[in-house]
Design goal:
GO molecular function: carbohydrate binding; glycosyltransferase activity
Radius of gyration: 28 Å
Strand content: 25-35%
Number of strands: 42
CATH topology of the domain at 10-279: Beta-galactosidase, Chain A, domain 5
Protein name: Glycosyl transferase
Largest sheet: 10 strands, antiparallel
InterPro entries: 6-hairpin_glycosidase_sf, 6hp_glycosidase-like_sf, Gal_mutarotase_sf_dom, GH65_N, GH94_catalytic, GH94_Enzymes, GH94N_CBP, Glyco_hydrolase_94_b-supersand
Oligomer: single chain
CATH superfamily of the domain at 10-279: Glycoside hydrolase, family 65, N-terminal domain
Strand order of the largest sheet: 1-2-9-10-11-12-19-16-15-14
Distance between the termini: 38 Å
CATH class of the domain at 10-279: Mainly Beta
Low-confidence stretches: 491-505
Helix content: 25-40%
Keywords: Glycosyltransferase, Transferase
Shape: globular
């Protein structure tokens, strides 16, 4: 069952029923100010950091679901409704929501009034703008009342949810003309405030939640909306809100447009403390003046659309498979940009109060957006590397506002260091910017301990080289990519902490997946060394890679597939010898991606085993058989019910590793089959089962052992976005950056006979046409009509256009 449809021309997903299986959301914002908005107007806003600078509240696990947001109520002679249906849930005569790139427009019609809200965050300015359009589509005059509503968060979202004894006495507001100022805690420790204004004279307002909603009322029908009145309340402590009341008169066929702006501002006056509690309103006034008219707002929307067109123009394809084309051209790249902005910090599944930016996550996300915003990728790399330790290890996460490592999460995930090499390698291949390696970057944000970025990479590789276990395989530490595979953890009871705290716990468990990573990224590091003239270091690195490669062949091969690991007792994990968890997906993907076992014929056998044991109609599960009981020696992975998350769920993040691995042994049909099964455009028809948005990837789909097989969770913020874009754009379609130029090496399925692409690379436009020849034809690559050897088109400084024809 479908709840909407794609509009590829407008780059929108159009939802035509409000009660979707779950809230289907969009992200507004591209730099510092961000908002999450659902198809019914739910969501929240923040500036830079979803934990520390939250403007509006959101209640997770709320009943009714998704009933906190940025709402507009209409009281039409006692009929109370919302253009987006929520939270009143009054049946509408018509409804539509259009999620576009950086904007959302939802509209509803009731009793002859059409109301639409266009919401977006303009480029560069720290605010969210709503254009509210009201139209009388009857033959008679209409008089009704419009109410706006937001509920302010007391800035620190975690403290806001827990420290009631203090917070219920801190709320402060100010109202001037049609602008409501939220200045809670401004007198004490902050130099910022929020404001909420409208470009019209108001007939009333409220800033106190209990007055507007009612002490025992609800968002569904606030007391003041029901009374068709306003309390003109001034919040003092308790819960500050922002609500404007406007009386609207429309003649038949008349349309009015109002502009609402919710913004963040800082006081630029360094002498703020000499005038406590007095806010400098000039920053907010300038923004309100900038977005005062419909013409100004329409111009800002147009600029936003042009911004996204430019970003997406860096990689675009044309092919007969429209579903794949729309994902490659629009939605996959769009999601990659959202993961760049958010990492795993703020979604409808991540509260924005704990995780911050992930070291591993952000390095992987970079793979999907570096071709669109290389200069910001460069900044992100420096931020990530600055949280690294001197021994090459790293904080697993850091806060986006402070760039400081997250002490609550800590470190010890032994795959983290290698991801930095992956990210930097991808950046250099994309840009040719070798100077980044000369940048001085601190360790643990201590400027006295700064070294070149190249030294950071050296320490990353050295960390793995100096953390090998009894079988010559890398030590797993607290965990590797699979955070829940805690092989050095000995808890005494299920539910206790799964964290390892030090060598006394016997940290000798080894990871075959990290071994695959070391081989893959060790080779890339060696190439970087050789490009810098560090030939001896390159040889030493290649020798280390060879040793780990051989250790995998000797001790990491189980006969039909690659082992997952050895636990702290030296017992195999992911082996045919195990009763449960015999085979895992991760090492099959990463070992083959690293080239391990291809020449020996092991790679094909491993990937055949994946298809035999791990395939489902909805994607590849992470392991089989599922764990039915808790195992202390394996940790959190066995705490989930069978079929969910790391215990045999379909973890979409690692399905692209199998896609890439399949292209490395030349199996285009199988590679595309794996790609297609988790691709949102192909799951749209089963939205009632899948439940999450049919235009973006989810982290997890319930596996074949689950009661709800095929049901997805944790959409939007997942490494699935970047890795899937890499798998389809760089390996199936085969257009990927190399150190010396652009590589074009497709591995196509039969269903994609030919395609054309435009790829912008290092300042040049590559116009690529890929054709399939007859059986027996020799593969040929023509560049500007001249055949070249190999598949890497040599980069020529200053050349602006390449015309590439490939015959497969």
């Amino acid at each position: 069952m479908k709840f909407g449809y794609f509009d590829d021309q407008e780059k929108e997903y159009i939802i035509n029923t409000p009660d979707t299986p779950l809230p289907w959301i969009n992200y507004l914002g591209s730099e510092n100010f961000f908002s999450l908005i659902s198809n019914t107007g739910g969501g929240y806003s923040f500036y830079k950091d979803a934990k520390l600078l939250r403007l509006t509240r959101y209640r997770y696990n709320n009943v009714p679901l998704d009933s906190n947001g940025h709402y507009y109520y209409i009281n039409d002679n006692g009929t109370i409704w919302n253009p987006g249906w929520q939270p009143s849930q009054t049946p509408l005569d018509s409804y539509e929501c259009r999620h576009g790139l950086g904007y959302t427009r939802y509209s509803g019609t009731k009793n002859g009034i059409n109301a639409s809200v266009t919401a977006f965050v303009p480029l560069q300015d720290p605010c969210e703008v709503h254009k509210v359009s009201l139209e009388n589509i009857t033959d008679s005059p209409k008089d009704f009342t419009l109410y706006s509503y937001v509920e302010f968060c007391l800035w620190n979202a975690m403290d806001d949810m827990t420290n009631f004894q203090r917070n219920l006495s801190t709320g402060e507001v100010e109202v001037e003309d049609s602008v409501i100022y939220h200045k809670t805690e401004y007198r004490e420790r902050r130099n910022h405030y929020a404001y909420y204004g409208v470009n019209a004279e108001i007939n009333g307002f409220d800033t106190d939640r209990n007055t507007f909603v009612g002490t025992y009322g609800s968002n569904q029908e606030p007391v003041m909306v029901g009374k068709n009145s306003s309390g003109n309340s001034m919040a003092s402590g308790w819960s500050p809100i922002g609500s404007h009341r406007l009386s609207i008169h429309l003649e038949p066929g008349e349309k009015k447009e109002l502009i609402f702006v919710l913004g963040y501002a800082e006081n630029p006056d360094e002498k703020k403390w000499s005038a406590p509690n007095v806010i400098n309103k000039e920053p907010s006034r300038s923004i309100l003046e900038k977005y005062k008219t419909t013409a100004q707002v329409d111009e800002a929307i147009l600029a936003l659309k042009k911004y996204w067109e430019q970003l997406l123009s860096n990689y675009s394809v044309s092919m007969s498979d429209h579903k794949t084309a729309r994902m490659v051209n629009i939605w996959n790249q769009y999601q990659c940009m959202v993961t760049f902005n958010m990492s795993r910090s703020a979604s409808y599944y991540e509260s924005g109060t704990g995780r911050g930016m992930g070291f591993r996550d952000s390095c992987q996300d970079l793979l999907g957006f570096v071709h669109m915003i290389p200069e910001r990728a460069r900044e992100r790399i420096i931020d990530i590397a600055s949280t690294q330790f001197e021994d090459g290890g790293a904080y697993h996460q850091y806060q986006p506002l402070t760039k400081k490592g997250n002490l609550d999460i800590g470190s010890g995930f032994n795959d983290d260091p290698l991801w930095l090499i992956a990210g930097v390698s991808a950046y250099i291949r994309e840009t040719g910017d070798w100077d980044i390696l000369k940048e001085s970057v601190p360790f643990d944000n201590d400027e006295t301990k700064s070294q070149s970025l190249m030294e950071h990479l050296r320490r990353s590789l050295g960390f793995t080289k100096t953390h090998l276990g009894p079988h010559g395989l890398p030590l797993i530490g607290r965990a590797d990519w699979n955070d829940c595979l805690n092989l050095n953890c000995f808890s005494t009871e299920p539910g206790e902490s799964f964290q390892t705290t030090g060598p006394s716990e016997g940290p000798v468990a080894e990871s075959v997946m990290i071994a695959g990573m070391f081989v893959k990224y060790g080779k890339e590091y060696a190439t970087i060394c050789r490009m810098l003239g560090l030939d001896q270091e390159a040889l030493e690195t290649e020798a280390s890679v060879k040793e780990v490669y051989e250790a995998v062949i000797k001790s990491g091969w189980d006969g039909n597939w690659f082992l997952r690991a050895y636990d702290a007792f030296g017992v195999k994990v992911g082996s045919g010898e195990c009763e449960e968890g015999k085979i895992f997906i991760e090492p099959q993907g990463f070992c083959v991606m690293g080239g391990i076992g291809i020449e020996e014929g092991l790679a094909k056998q491993a990937l055949d085993s994946v298809e035999e044991h791990l395939d489902t109609p909805y994607g590849i599960v992470i392991l089989q058989p599922a764990y039915s009981t808790y195992h202390k020696n394996l940790g959190e992975i066995t705490s989930y019910p069978p079929g969910y998350k790391e215990n045999a769920g379909i973890f979409c993040h690692n399905n692209p590793w199998i896609t890439i691995a399949e292209t490395m042994i030349g199996r285009g049909n199988r590679a595309f089959e794996v790609y297609r099964r988790t691709c949102p455009a192909y799951t749209e028809e089963i939205s009632e089962l899948h439940k999450t948005e049919p235009y973006v990837y989810s982290q997890m789909i319930a596996g074949k052992d689950a009661k709800n097989m095929g049901e997805a969770k944790n959409s939007w913020l997942t490494g699935t976005a970047a890795w899937t874009f890499v798998s389809i754009s760089q390996y199936i379609l085969g257009i990927r950056p190399g150190f010396h130029g652009l590589i074009v090496d497709p591995c196509l399925p039969d269903s994609i006979g030919e395609f054309s692409a435009v790829r912008k690379f290092r300042g040049a436009d590559y116009h690529i046409q890929v054709n399939k020849g007859l059986d027996g034809d020799t593969k040929a690559i023509l560049v500007d009509g001249i055949k070249i050897e190999g598949n890497e088109i040599p980069y020529e400084e200053g050349k602006k256009e390449y015309h590439v024809t490939i015959m497969l």
